[in-house]
UniProtKB/TrEMBL annotation:
This is Glutamate dehydrogenase. The keyword Oxidoreductase applies. One of its GO terms (molecular function) is nucleotide binding. It comes from Conexibacter arvalis. The lineage of its organism: Bacteria, Bacillati, Actinomycetota, Thermoleophilia, Solirubrobacterales. Keywords: NAD, Nucleotide-binding, Oxidoreductase. The keyword Secreted does not apply.
Length: 434
């Protein structure tokens, strides 16, 4: 039995045991954990302690809408491990939010934090809703009700949320204020990604996208290849993808394809990213941009390039399109954009995959800096934060490459294995209570 097969079998077994977490995304997370655990020869106790979330909360709450009708919303918060310190992870607003999705992303957050040696366990949460269908007043009421329901779990030393899909600095400000009102004092460190006026940092907005570029640059440098002239495709021009695409272009990379929810663009000689972003801001999407060829939103994944950056949502590279990818490297700026089946196909084709736990870790690193500043009531300037972020991501990239060489495995398995090893050792050091 191969390591990959053993990992898949372990994943299937664990899904059967933990039925309440069952979802395709959680099955993928378990398979990744299984492969990493097998590569490490991880002990049974650590497997038991790390394969399922430690805590979860499902809440249903009523919100009065603008028309006076009360509507019920369902929200979640999952904490994967409490071993490393307070848990850390965003909360999202999207129609597909589920317990299984939050459990999978919480596990991924644990590995992401451990890979950067941040003193956090992983968490994730969200509310199942369509934020685009809600007014600003309704979004505020949803956020404050969700914060109230989570109040027993969250805090600067227990669980620290952050922005995710469908949420941003505005929602973090509402969340912080709700918890602060309950406690009767300001609690700026209860969330990160806040407005700068409330103790946030300007570096947080761009951190994930810039971190993606730092990882690409570090990987190419280790391979003896320059970033300048590298052909790149970026799927998704949200916060992460837009920042990454713009920074890559500034460093001399040739961005030959981009896409958003409405469509895609391709131009073999390179796309003017700044012009596309201006067009998108003015017209609501990339459709109609006159200086590139229009392509289908999903077809942008299959454009010939050196580096493909999926920066949209999960499960974009699947068994059905993995055979048609025309890149040398996939860098996962989004969470879980590649399924386990697609991973196996890409490995057979010799396409290297830089996993999300490394590639998009810049956001949680910046969140850590914001949390530290809030705890210490001290502020670092943006240049210092940017330097610290770059150093952490380059160090983590080097460690993952070294682990891949030591364990003779792919980068995803190496990244998760490096993180799992760190968390497992911490757990064994702490023991079990009582």
């Amino acid at each position: 039995m191969t390591t990959a097969t053993a990992g898949r079998d372990a994943g299937a077994e664990l899904v059967a045991e933990g039925g309440e977490w069952r979802s395709p995304l959680y099955a993928d997370a378990l398979q990744q954990f299984g492969r990493a655990a097998d590569a490490l020869g991880l002990d049974d106790e650590s497997r038991v302690r790390l394969r399922e979330p430690r805590r979860s909360l499902t809440v249903n709450f009523g919100v009065r809408m603008d028309d006076g009708i009360v509507r019920s919303f369902t929200g979640y918060r999952v904490q994967h491990t409490l071993t490393m310190g307070p848990t850390k992870g965003g909360f999202r607003y999207a129609p597909h939010v589920s317990l299984g999705e939050c459990a999978a992303l919480a596990m991924s957050m644990t590995w992401k934090c451990a890979l950067l040696r941040l003193p956090y366990g992983g968490a994730k949460g969200g509310v199942r809703c369509d934020p685009s269908a809600l007014s600003v007043a309704e979004l505020e009421r949803v956020t404050r009700r969700y914060a109230t329901e989570l109040a027993p779990l969250v805090g600067p030393d227990t669980d620290v949320p952050a922005p995710d899909v469908g949420t941003g600095a505005r929602e973090m400000g509402w969340f912080m204020d709700t918890i602060s009102q309950r406690l009767g004092r300001p609690v700026p460190s209860v969330v990160t990604g806040k407005p700068v006026e409330l103790g946030g940092t300007a570096a947080r907005h761009a951190a994930t996208g810039l971190g993606v570029v730092d990882v690409i640059d570090a990987l190419l440098e280790r391979r003896g290849e320059p970033l300048s002239g590298c052909r790149v495709v970026v799927q998704g021009l949200g916060n992460v993808g837009a920042v990454a695409a713009q920074r890559l272009a500034e460093l001399g990379a040739l961005v030959v394809g981009v896409s958003d929810v409405d469509g895609g663009l391709a131009r073999a000689t390179g796309i003017d990213v700044r012009a596309v972003l201006r067009w998108k801001a003015a017209h609501g999407g990339v459709d109609g941009f006159p200086h590139a060829d229009p392509v289908a939103r999903d077809a942008v994944l299959e454009l010939p390039c050196d580096v493909l950056v999926p920066a949209a949502v999960e499960r974009q590279i699947v068994a059905g399109n993995a055979e048609r990818l025309a890149c040398r490297i996939v860098v996962e700026a989004a969470n879980g954009p590649t399924t386990a089946e697609a991973d196996a196909i890409l490995a057979e084709r010799g396409i290297e995959v830089v996993p999300d736990v490394l590639a998009n870790a810049g956001g949680v690193a910046a969140s850590y800096f914001e949390w530290v500043m809030g705890q210490q009531h001290y502020s670092w300037d943006p240049d210092e934060l940017r330097r610290r972020l770059r150093e952490q991501l380059r160090t983590a990239t080097a460690e993952v490459i070294a682990a891949a060489e030591r364990l003779c495995c792919d980068l995803r398995t190496a990244a998760v294995a490096s993180a799992v090893e760190h968390v497992a050792r911490a757990g064994l050091s702490r023991g079990l209570h009582p």
